[in-house]
Design brief:
heterodimer; A: 70 residues; mainly alpha; B: 258 residues; alpha+beta; 5-stranded antiparallel beta sheet; 9 strands; 41% helix; elongated
Chain lengths: 70, 258
C-alpha cells in the first residue's frame, strides 16, 4: 500500500496519535458545503495492516526472548 | 473582469480551522502540499486556509493519497503544524484534515452563516488546550517452572489463571480510576475507546485513551499523571502524556448538529 520505505515503529505510533486526531476528530462538515467526501474509514485499513505487521514483529521478538529464557 | 478560469477551476480552499477575526498568520510554503497559509476573514471569525490543486483532493486521488503512508504523514503533520502555530497565539477550532471549499465565496457564506456557533466555540476554548493521556498495562507472563507432579502442575495452572484474572481486574480498575482522577483536574474530559494492540503497535494492553481540556499552562493534569504513575508503576502500568493539542476531541463532530 505504501510506495516508500516502511516507517520506524516509533514514528508509526506518533503518526497514529496524530492521524487519530486530524482525521477522526475535529469539525467535520457534511452535506454540500465541502468538496471532500472520501470515506476516511478506509484509511484505517491501510494503517491497520501496516501497524499490525509491526505489532506482529514485536510479539514475535518478545516470544523468542521468552522462549530463550524458559 | 475576466477571471482566470483555469486557476479557478483547478484550485480549492483547504481549511485548517477557524480562529477569531484579527488573527495574524501568514506562513509561506508551510501548508499542505507546501502551499502558502493565509487568513480569510468574514465578520467576527476567520478561517486558516491554503489554495490547493483540486485534482489532488478529488474522491479517487484523495483515497489513494490517504492510503499512501508518506502522503498521509506529510499532510497530517502540515495540518497539525499550521494549527499549532495558530494555537501559539490565539484560539483555534480545528477542522478535520482535507476539509475543502470550492472557493472564497462559499467559505465566506459558511463563516457568516455559522458565525454564532463558531464564536461560541471560540469563547469556550479561549486559553485552553487539549492534552492526551494513554495508559498501558504490561501483562507479565508467569514463569513456567518444571512441574514434578500432577499436583504441582495443577497448582501452577491455578496460579496462572489467577494472575490473568487479577490483571483483568486491575485493567478495569486502573482505567476507571485514572480517567476519574484526570477528569477532576480538567475542564472537560473524553475517554476514547482503547486501541487494540494491532493498531497501537505495542505489546502492552492499552487501558486508557483519554483526552482532557485544560487551561493553557495548568500543570495539575501533568501532576495527576505522575501520581498515577507512582501508584501503578509496580503493577506494570505506564502512562503517556501528549500535547498540547488544539481541542480536536472537544469540538462538535458536525457544526450543523450543534
Amino acid at each position: 500500500m505504501n510506495e516508500g520505505q516502511p516507517l520506524p515503529l516509533e514514528e508509526q505510533i506518533t503518526l497514529l496519535e496524530l492521524v487519530d486526531r486530524v482525521l477522526n476528530k475535529g469539525v467535520v462538515l457534511t452535506g454540500d458545503i465541502t468538496l471532500s467526501v472520501a470515506d476516511v474509514d478506509l484509511v484505517y485499513v491501510g494503517l491497520r495492516v501496516l501497524l499490525a505487521s509491526a505489532g506482529t514483529l514485536d510479539r514475535m521478538a518478545l516470544e523468542s526472548r521468552e522462549g530463550a529464557a524458559a | 473582469m475576466n477571471e482566470p478560469a483555469v486557476f479557478t477551476a483547478l484550485t480549492a480552499l483547504y481549511v485548517y480551522g477557524v480562529v477569531p477575526a484579527g488573527t495574524r498568520l501568514a506562513l509561506p510554503g508551510a501548508g499542505v502540499e507546501a502551499s502558502d497559509v493565509e487568513i480569510l476573514e468574514a465578520g467576527d471569525v476567520a478561517a486558516i486556509v491554503s489554495a490547493v490543486p483540486i485534482d489532488e483532493y478529488g474522491d479517487e486521488s484523495l483515497l489513494r493519497h490517504l492510503n499512501d503512508l508518506a502522503w498521509l504523514q506529510r499532510t497530517a503533520q502540515a495540518h497539525e503544524a499550521v494549527l499549532e502555530r495558530a494555537l501559539g497565539t490565539t484560539t483555534v477550532i480545528p477542522f478535520r484534515m482535507t476539509t475543502l471549499f470550492a472557493g472564497e465565496p462559499t467559505l465566506r457564506v459558511f463563516l457568516q452563516e455559522r458565525s454564532e456557533v463558531l464564536l461560541e466555540l471560540l469563547r469556550r476554548f479561549e486559553g485552553k488546550v487539549e492534552l492526551g493521556v494513554k495508559a498501558y498495562l504490561e501483562r507479565r507472563a508467569t514463569e513456567p517452572s518444571a512441574a514434578d507432579s500432577g499436583r504441582a502442575y495443577m497448582l501452577q495452572r491455578q496460579a496462572v489463571q489467577e494472575a490473568a484474572r487479577d490483571a483483568d481486574v486491575l485493567a478495569v480498575k486502573c482505567a476507571q480510576e485514572s480517567h476519574e482522577r484526570l477528569a477532576t483536574v480538567a475542564l472537560d474530559a473524553r475517554a476514547n475507546r482503547a486501541q487494540p494492540s494491532e493498531l497501537s503497535g505495542r505489546s502492552e494492553q492499552m487501558l486508557l485513551n483519554g483526552a482532557y481540556l485544560v487551561a493553557r499552562g495548568d500543570t495539575q493534569l501533568e501532576e495527576a499523571v505522575r501520581d498515577l504513575e507512582q501508584r501503578y508503576a509496580e503493577r506494570g502500568v505506564t502512562y503517556e502524556l501528549t500535547g498540547p493539542w488544539p481541542p480536536y476531541n472537544f469540538v462538535p463532530r458536525d457544526l450543523a448538529a450543534s
